[in-house]
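Translate sequence into structure tokens.
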Amino acid sequence: MYSLGIDIGSSSVKVSLLDIESGECIAASTNPSTEMPIKALEPGWAEQDPRMWWKYVCEGIGKIGKDRNLSDVACIGITYQMHGLVALDASNECVRDSIIWCDSRAVAIGNKAAGALGREFCLSSLLNSPGNFTASKMAWVKENEAENFRKTEKFFLPGDYIAYMLSGDISTTVTGLSEQILWNFKDERRADELLEYYGLPSSLIPKTVPAIGTQTYTDYKTEKLLGIKEGTPISFRAGDQPDNAFSLNVMNPGEIAATAGTSGVVYGVTDVPKADPMSRVNTFVHVNHEKNAPRYGILLCINGTGIMNAWIKRNLSGGMDYDAMNRIASSVPAASEGVIVLPFGNGAERVLENRFTGASVSGLDLNRHSFAHVLRAAQEGIAYSFLYGIEIMKGLGLKPEVIRAGKANLFLSPIFRQTLSTISGASIELYNTDGSLGAARGAALGAGLYKSREEAFALLKVLETVDPVEEDTAVLAESYEKWKHALENNLR
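Result follows.
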């Protein structure tokens, strides 16, 4: 008996098949083989066609189903890139391409909404500024694409779209509403105040279903197309960062998860709804939230992390793979002998109060430094950006002593993970999991095939623990201060 996990990223789509009894991943497929395109029709824009995600979901399921009977899939879980806007018309066809998470076109609209609704309401009820979240993106469509807005019957998130394609049923979750800036934390209800301000009819919002628990069932179309039986429950759905925390069994106050793919995230769980007065980090409803046992996720996001490393690989490395890049970077001592990289080149950064500074390199001595210095400085700069946000999170009461992460993406790099551990003073535990496996475990738990959380995570293993390197602490601390000074100069 299997659980199928689907992970809709902005770079690729991954599907994993979890054997429920053994807790082991028995098959996985990531598609396409190269990164999915992101359309940038204007500076700061980022769009993808939702039908492309569905195509690669089908392709991945087809690949893992070649050697096994997918009628044995007992449940399905979905995780997805957060904050994207998918709009459907009366025929449930996409009105336009999805405006995805890193698109910054709605920042001004969100800022205007914050001023109109009032700082006190936003911080106490929304726990965020409306900023660049999904509802603000829909308001941008209303203001700039009148015909597309007129056609829109429902809008929701990328994972909600995949659930619809599998089931024919349109829904979202309370966790998803909070990702869209459509949850009133103070009153535990949908934030109709923001809908009213933006002039978005409440009929555009789908019904809500639990994040963990039976949400809907696959239809005959899915059985015919993919071989998964009609009536299979979809029983887990969460944005990639709440899902990453779930996959690492980060569910209780004080626990911390991290990931470093295209973007980088630190996500901490609390039982007290808190807001950063400057909205540089964001609070969402966590997947295991209950009214009588509240759980909230405080999320720090850095857009320019893995994409910085990928840009260097694509444009400067001459065809090296990441292992080769890491080997070359390791020839340079900690702190990169004065080279500083600011990685903020992937759209407006929430942690920088929605400003876009662009990525930059400084401190280069052309007679002394080499490509190796740039490689190392880039990974150190990404780690410094994490610490910059962690310092904000400490002000909200989260003090990471242990950071849990899947051994994937930038956490495969010894330089990145060692730098982050040393400058933060936290140990980093690396686990044998990822987003798609987390979604698969969540689905099995939600469908009742695991009877408890303890059973669901019984086989979660620590693969490696990274501890701070004392001899590098002083030089990296000095380098971080220089990095912050360079950043502050860019922000002036």
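Note: The chain has a mean pLDDT of 95.
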